[in-house]
Structures are given as C-alpha cells and as structure tokens.
Amino acid sequence: MVHDTRSVEEATAYFSQLTTLITKSVESVLHDYAAASRPLPTLECTDSSAVLDTQVIRDAVRVIEGACAQLVASIAPAPHIMANRTLGGVDQACLRVAIKAKIADQLRDGPKSVAELAAGAKVDAGKLGRVLRNLAVKHCFSEVTKDVFANNRLSVCLLSGTNTNALVDFGTDELNTAFVYLPEALTKPEWLGSNGVEQTAYFLAHGQAHFKRYETETWRAERFSRAMIAYTGLQGGTDEIARIYPWPKVSPGTTFCDIGGAVGHVSFALRKMHPHVKVVVQDMASVVEDGHKLWEKEDPHGLAKGDVRLVAINFLEHSPVDGCDFYYLKHVLHDWPEADCVTILTNIKKAMIKKRNSKLLIHEFMLHDATQHADHAAAGAILAPPPLLANFGTGAQRRYMMDINMLACYNGAERTLDDFIRIGNAAGLQFSRLWEGGEVTVMEFACA
Predict the structure, then answer these.
(1) pLDDT digits over 296-324, tens only?
(2) Which residue of the set 265, 334, 363, 376 is catalytic?
(3) Which residues form the O-methyltransferase C-terminal domain (predicted)?
(4) 411 contact partners, CB below 8 Å, separation of at least 6
(5) 337-349 exposure pattern, b = at least 16 Cβ within 10 A, e = fewer
(6) pTM score, whole prediction
(7) Domain finish residue from 201, 233, 265
(8) Is 2 a domain residue?
(9) Whole-angstrom Cα distance, residue 410 to residue 197?
(10) Residues 313 and 371 in one domain
C-alpha cells in the first residue's frame, strides 16, 4: 500500500495549482470573447454560430477538462469515481434513444412535454421521460419545467442531417456494440499477436469487417463519411495543415503530394490559403474519379494549368509521384500494422530521393505518456503545465479513445512520437521536428 507522503503545505499547493489553472483558463476564454466583441453563449443558446472556436479557446478547454477531472479524481472517494465510469454506457444508450426518437427534431420549434414527444416517437412517455431526464442532468436538453424539455447548445448537435448527428449515431451504434466485445477479442488465445481486420472486436460484434460491411449496407458508409467530416472539424478542420505549417516560406511552385488524400479536401484547403503551392492528390482509382468532379467544380483553372493533379495509387504496392517537395499522409498509418506502415513509408522514400530536400509530413494523433519528456518538448511537443499530467490527461482524452477505437475496429493503432520515429527509421527516414495544432500533430521527416 502506498501512502501519501506530502506535507499539508504540499498538498494544499497541489490543489491550489489545479484551481489556478482552471481560473486562468476561464479568464482566457472570457478575454477571447471580449476581444471578438461577442457575448458569451449560455447553455440555452441553440445558435452554433454564437460559439467561438479559436485555438485560444481550444487550449483553454484542454486545460479546464484536464484540471477539473484531476481535481475530482484527487478529492472524491475512489468508488464514487469508478461507479460513475462503470455506468458511462448509460449515457450512450440514452443518446441512441434520443436519435432514434428524433427528440431534437421534435423540439426544433420550441419546448414540448414528454407526452407530446413520446406520441411523436411512438414510445412510452414514462420511459422516454426517464431517458431525457438523465440526458438533461448532463446538459444535453434542458428540462424547462417538470416533464417539459427544450433543445440547448448540446442537443442541437443531434438534429437530423447534421454531421455531428451522424457521428453520435455511428458511435452509439456500431462502435459501442464493438467495444462490448473488446475483452473477448483481446483474450482469444488464437488471436494473440493478430493484426487482421477479422480478428477484431468489431468483427465479433457484427460478423463482418468494418468496411466490408459497408459494401452491402451503403447507408452505413454514407453515415460514416458524414461522421468523419464532423470528427475532422473537431481536430481543427481540413485546413489545419495549411495553418500550422510555415507554407509562406516555401518557394512558388512547391509541390505537395497528398497520399491517401481521398478527393482532396485537404489539398483544396491548402491551395485556397496558399495558391503558390501545386498539389498532387493520390488515392484509389475510384476515389480519384470522384476527386476530378470536385476539382473541376472548385478549381478548374488549377486543373487546366497542371497545378492540380489527381493520380491513382495503391500505396502498399507502389511509390507516389516522383520528385515532389512534400509528401503528406493524414490518418493513414493508424489504419495499418507496423510492418505495413514501414512498407508505405519505404515506397514514399523511393519517390523522395528523386528530389533533394524532399520532406514527408505525417499528420496523425500523437500519443504522449503521462511523464515529462524534455526531448519531446525540444522537438515541438506541447507539455501540460504542472501539476497536470504531462499529456493533459482527460483534456486530451479523445486521442486515447481513438487508439482504442482503432484497436477494436481494425487492429490499427495511434502511436507515440517514439513509435513514429522507429517506423520512420526502419524505412530510411529521419525525424526533423513536429508542429502541434488541434488534436493532431504534424511530424516532419527527411531521407536519412
């Protein structure tokens, strides 16, 4: 048994530091709203445009979330914390009910009673009221009077047709079902060391690999696509690489090759912000065909001049277009086991050596452990202020949740900086530095 050896003064200082971090972070949010001459939105505000989403506010929220969770974990009885976490699945189930019953849609024009909502959804009023009461306690929907509910700033995310609705729908459906099977998937003796998509919790839950299922259930594929658009927005949007990397310093005519770039939304955002950069978008042939339609509509001049090219590729078997200044991978490596990642990077290196000083930018979630690493800070990583966990703890929880998501669905993985460096070295690449933006990190590599 480990006993707390801190003095009363040290323990008091610890709690004081946490509360100070919260206070200062809230003050930075207030300052950002004041600087923008914007009123602070209330919980009852349903206008999403009223909410500022700046990097200052994202940084503040990260600290507030991390510090509040660490403060409660330090003060509350341990069984209290663990009981709440054990019952966390209740909220997922209630969100699923709200989506299936289209509660947010029913409340679009104003508050309604549980009886009215239940009639519209053809469900039991007493049971629906209990579900909505649980959500309202967590500030999703507001109970304005007894058994009368209204939308608020959280519940409007559940409106049909929104990308966040698709994200919640997908998560509370396919993902949560898969997570139930994660212990079984990890303890099957015959799956020890496996890395196939058919040796996953998702496969156990649904009887098919994730994307294989979508070949016949196309509505799921469409929902997943919209969910990923919502998730990209949470990470800073498609223009994040255009904002955080020093593109103004690169020469006109610099070529950016987006490997696995789908139809090219990231490249389009880069061209829009930095038109002096030429782009090559590479993905599967069928995806490239769809990409041509987008670019013919959005940047026909770039296509005609050759400043925009779309080229099919199988990156496990072939190298990308030779001689580009920058090669770029966003959320590609986390889908693949380490051996395949080395193959992908080796193929890219073959193209990089055709042009001197060519660089590879890997744009992925980067996991930090909870300890301070001076070498990571020197490379550009942002470490949390003490006494927070160095990785911001709960304030950065989504990247760790995404790691488990990749494990459950694909046998993929999010990785640490050391992991990326090891994989890069195995492919003949040397790490240079990194840039942290939203939730994901840009790591720069060059030929060794």
Answers:
(1) 998 999 999 999 999 999 999 999 999 99
(2) 334
(3) 196-429
(4) 194, 195, 196, 197, 199, 200, 337
(5) eeeebbbbbebbb
(6) 0.91
(7) 233
(8) no
(9) 5
(10) yes
